[in-house]
Amino acid sequence: MTAADNSSALRTTPLFALHQKLGARMVPFAGYSMPVQYPQGLMAEHLHTRKAAGLFDVSHMGQLLLRGPDAAAALESLMPVDVIDLGLHKQRYGLLLNEQGGILDDLMFVNRGDDLFLIVNGACKADDIAHIQKHIGSRCEVVPLPEHALLALQGPQAVTALSRLIPEVTSLVFMTGNHFNWQGHALYITRSGYTGEDGFEISVPNEGAEALAEALLAQPEVAPIGLGARNSLRLEAGLCLYGNDIDTTTTPVEAALNWAMQKVRRAGGAREGGFPGAATILAQLQDPKQLSRKRVGLIALERIPVREPAELQNAAGQKIGHITSGLLSPTLNQPVALAYVQPDYAAVDTPIFAIVRGKQVPMKVAATPFVPANYYRG
């Protein structure tokens, strides 16, 4: 969910030695040394995840708890999202906003009853924790979890593999979670992910992470998958990458994330507004003419990969936007992209031209996800 950085003093996850043993090519990412791919290569890893199950180390992500009777109302004051009414062990997508309505980070959170469990982007986690502590630390206890790793097991056969180790995970459906135990390690597992496939994210104490990863990799369906395929999978699923497709200059409405803002927080809702940038965002929701740009999906009509930050033009050669994420889709064997365009060009099937090495590449606006989601809803 976040873009790379190239800081010199790189941290490592509890699986660093395992990545090396598996022959991973390591790269700097969000301040960590992370596996971008393994010897089988990005294309094979991507296709394996779509047909079987892939194991991702996402321990660079930030994990934290909010505790106290006021935690839900406090967190809701920072996001345009319904936190208060979220059911027990239900998960939801959230957006931390600045006073202009720009997105500080996107995150996942779960109501675990005794606390709220948050997962935030790796490159943003220090700033996110500081922001949360500053604004609501007087209303609830903010507890970072640096002693926990995070594994993602994704793909149509993920449940087959994981249920051999932890049979009870079959009770979960998409965007729910629960507490589990494996070989004495207390786990929290959600049925969710960043690939568009069925799958799980597993919060595990650092000391149990390598053994759990090796146990999962011992299952015949499971292969190790790096950040390269994680990026191509999430783009096919039409999911935003923080730092590319959303950032502090984009509002949720510009980013086409209206679905993430429940009716109760919108104009006329029981808890309307009351979040940073509410005046701007509520106005954009009520009057789309206030938008100067909108995020869309694009498919290229020629087999020429179109990458960020390529300029987008109309047929007359006028600039109308730019690419924020783009690559050749391994599943579709066709170039796909996310982009911001002027609202007049946001309708599905609108022709648009990307400029690649000085030449126009014809594209058209397409609905996302590019590859149909395969979430397990029960």
Automatic annotation (TrEMBL):
<dbReference type="Pfam" id="PF08669">
    <property type="entry name" value="GCV_T_C"/>
</dbReference>
<dbReference type="InterPro" id="IPR029043">
    <property type="entry name" value="GcvT/YgfZ_C"/>
</dbReference>
<keyword id="KW-0032">Aminotransferase</keyword>
<dbReference type="InterPro" id="IPR006222">
    <property type="entry name" value="GCVT_N"/>
</dbReference>
<dbReference type="GO" id="GO:0032259">
    <property type="term" value="P:methylation"/>
</dbReference>
<dbReference type="GO" id="GO:0008483">
    <property type="term" value="F:transaminase activity"/>
</dbReference>
<keyword id="KW-0808">Transferase</keyword>
<feature type="binding site">
    <location>
        <position position="201"/>
    </location>
    <ligand>
        <name>substrate</name>
    </ligand>
</feature>
<dbReference type="InterPro" id="IPR013977">
    <property type="entry name" value="GcvT_C"/>
</dbReference>
<dbReference type="GO" id="GO:0004047">
    <property type="term" value="F:aminomethyltransferase activity"/>
</dbReference>
<dbReference type="InterPro" id="IPR006223">
    <property type="entry name" value="GcvT"/>
</dbReference>
<dbReference type="Pfam" id="PF01571">
    <property type="entry name" value="GCV_T"/>
</dbReference>
<dbReference type="GO" id="GO:0008168">
    <property type="term" value="F:methyltransferase activity"/>
</dbReference>
<protein>
    <recommendedName>
        <fullName>aminomethyltransferase</fullName>
        <ecNumber>2.1.2.10</ecNumber>
    </recommendedName>
</protein>
<dbReference type="GO" id="GO:0005960">
    <property type="term" value="C:glycine cleavage complex"/>
</dbReference>
<feature type="domain" description="GCVT N-terminal">
    <location>
        <begin position="16"/>
        <end position="263"/>
    </location>
</feature>
<comment type="similarity">
    <text>Belongs to the GcvT family.</text>
</comment>
<keyword id="KW-0489">Methyltransferase</keyword>
<feature type="domain" description="Aminomethyltransferase C-terminal">
    <location>
        <begin position="293"/>
        <end position="371"/>
    </location>
</feature>
<dbReference type="InterPro" id="IPR028896">
    <property type="entry name" value="GcvT/YgfZ/DmdA"/>
</dbReference>
<dbReference type="GO" id="GO:0006546">
    <property type="term" value="P:glycine catabolic process"/>
</dbReference>
<dbReference type="InterPro" id="IPR027266">
    <property type="entry name" value="TrmE/GcvT-like"/>
</dbReference>
